[in-house]
Amino acid sequence: MNLKGNEKIQNTKYRIQNTDFLFSVLCLLSSVFFFASCGSGGGSGGGSSYVTISGVVQFEDRTFDSTGFTGTQNKAVRFADIEIVNSSDSSIVTSTSTDQNGNYSVTISPSSSSVYVRCLTSTSTVFSKGTKVYNIEVVDNYSNVYSIVSGSFSATSPISHSKNLTASLDSGAGGPFNILDTLIDGTEFVASKNGGFTSNKVKAIWYDGNKDGTYYSTATNNLYLLGKSGDSDSYDDMVILHEFGHWVAGNFSKDDSPGGTHTITGYYDIRLAWSEGWASFFGSSVRSYAGYSNPEYYVDTTGGSGNGNLLFYYEIKTPSYSSLATGSDNELSVSSVLWNIFSSAGFNGIWDVVKNYLPSTAEISLEDFWDGWFSKGYDSTLNPSSIFSNRSIEYSSDSYESESGDNNSSQAEAVNFGESLHHTYYPLGDEDWISFSATNGTTYTIETLSLTNGADTHLFLYNTDGTTLITFNVNDYPYTDDRSLTDKSSLITWTATATGTYYVRSKAYSDSGAISTYGSYDLKVQQQKPD
Amino acid sequence: MTIEKFKQYSIVLFVFMFLFFSPFIISLAVSKPIPPIDVVIEFAKQPAIPGIAVVNLKLIPLIEHSNIDIQIELSEKLILSSGTKKWNGILEADKTETFQYQIYIPDNKAYELKAVIILKMITGETVRREEVLEINPAVKKKKLKKNHTKEEKGRGVIEFKGE
Q1: Structure ipTM
Q2: Which residue in A193, A275, A311, A414 has the fewest CB atoms around it within 10 Å?
Q3: B65-74: strand order across its sheet
C-alpha cells in the first residue's frame, strides 16, 4: 500500500475503529493466500513463483611456454558479473556473479518477456569472498565492457533453465576474458599476501587493432594493452601481469620510474630498472602462486592464430642474456635478484619491504629495497649479498675501504698515473680519497670511468694541505657534477701551480636531483704529456 | 620593448608553458619490455592505387646480433617489384640496417605486408619479431564477431554470442 492509500483511509468517514474486526479480516485474507499457494504447489512447474537460470561460463584459454602458444583449453570464467537481461527493453532483470568454477545460478519471477543471460568482463558488482573483494573491468577504448550472451528464451517455463556460455578464441571474446582471468590471478595473489585488496578499480583497456602500446598510466591508473596485428597482448599473460605489477606498485607501494621505452638488455635510470624489474618479477610470482609451470619465463607472443607465434621470451631465474643482465640499472638483473630472494625466502619479506618501507623513501630503486631488507631485519632470514653480487651489484665496501680506510686525506691512497682504481660508494655517505704527486706547470686529468649500479660521481681536488679546495668538476651547467647530459661520470682538468702531493675526494652526488646513494666506478689520474 | 617587459612576458610564457605541459610531465607511462632490437616498417612512399609503394624496413639493434634472418610475407595479390624476400646477415650494435622494398598494389582493398625477423644474439638467445604494415587499413573488415554494442544507463556493453 502506498502513501496515498494511507491518506485515503485516514480521511474516510467510515474508518474502522474496532481492532478485533480488523484482526479477523487479516486472518481471513492470510488463510485465502495460504490455501491458494498450496493448491498450485502440487503441479510440476505450472504457475511456480520462481524461474531458476543456472549454468557454467568458460573461456577458451591459450596455453604457452618459451616457444610461444602450445594449444587451447577451456577455463572457468571466475567471479565475473552475470546479468539476466530483458530482451525487449534491455533492462537488467537481476544480476549475480560466477563462482570460482564459473558456475552461476539465479532465480527470477516468471515473466511473459523473453530474457537472455549475459556474462561480463567485469567484477564490478563486487563479488566478495571472505575478506577478498575484486573490482576489475576489461573494456574497449570507449569504456564498453565485453560480454558473452545466450540466446533469448521465455522466462515462464520450464521452471529451470540451463545456460552454459563459452567465450571462444575465434569470436574475439576469448581475449578480453583471458585478460580478466589473468588479472584475477594477480588480484588473488595480492589479496592472499596482503590479507585483502584495495577498493581501487583495476581497469584494463584492450581492443582489436589497438596500436597505442602496452603500458600502465600513472595518470589514469589504468592498464593499456596492445591489440594490433603482429603484437596483440590479450593472451600474453606475463605481459598483462607485468603491467599489473606496475599497477600494484602504484596502488600499494610507490613507483618513481621516469617511464619510457626499455629493453631487457639495456642499462637505464635505476628507478626505471627497479620499476620494470619488479613488474616482471611480480608476474612470475603470480604465476608461481597460481601453480603454472615455468613461472620464471616472461613470454610475449605476436597473438597470431595457431601454435608458436613467439615474439620473444626471457628467463629471470638464471637470466637470459646473462652477461648483460648485471647491475641495479638493468631490469632483468633486478628481476633475477628478486626472484632468487623469493625462491629462498618466500614473498612475505619482499612484500613487507615493498609495501611498508619503499613508500617512505625517495627515488625508489633496488638500493632502497636493499636498505629496506636490512632495515626490516629480513637479513636474519636471508642475507642476499651473494644473490646481489652474482649480478655484479656491489652493495659492499671496496678493497681500499676494508684495508685501512680511505675516508679522508690522511687515509688517501697514493695512485700511479694511468692506473684505474675500482671503487664503490658504500656504505651510505662513503667518500673515496686518493693522492698524487704533481709537478709545477704540468696538466693532469682526474676522472671517473666505467660507472655501474647507478653511480653518479662528484670529484673535488684539494691542495697539499688536504683541506683547501682547489676545484671540483664543473663541466655541463647545470649538471655540475657530470661529464655530459647523458654521462654521469666526472672529469677535472687541472694544471699544477706548485709541486707537491695533492688530494682528490670522490663522493656520490648528493645535491638537488640526486637519485642514487651507492654505485661502482673506476678512478684514474693521468699526467698530460707536454705538446 | 624594455628588458623589464621582456622579463614579464617571459615569466608569463613560462607559466603558461608549464601549465600546458605539466600533465604530460606528470603523466608517466611504464611500458612492457621490448626485445633487444627495434623494428620499424613504414611507407617511404604511399602509392597511387593501383601503383607501386616503397616500403622501408629498419632494424635498430641495441646489442650485437651474430645472425639475422629476414623474410617478407606478402598478401597474395601484392607483387614485389624490387627488394629481396629473404636475407641473412650480421647486425652490429647501434648500427641501423635499412631494407627497401617496392611493392605493386593492384587495388584499394586492404592488404598486409608482414616482415618476419629471426635474430640470434651473441649471448645465444634467439628472438623472433613480426611486424605488419597494413595497406589500406580503413577498408579492412573487422575481425571481431561481436553482435552489437548496447548503451545502458551510460554504460556500453559489447555482446558476443557465447553459446
Answers
A1: 0.80
A2: A414
A3: B86-91, B65-74, B111-121, B126-135
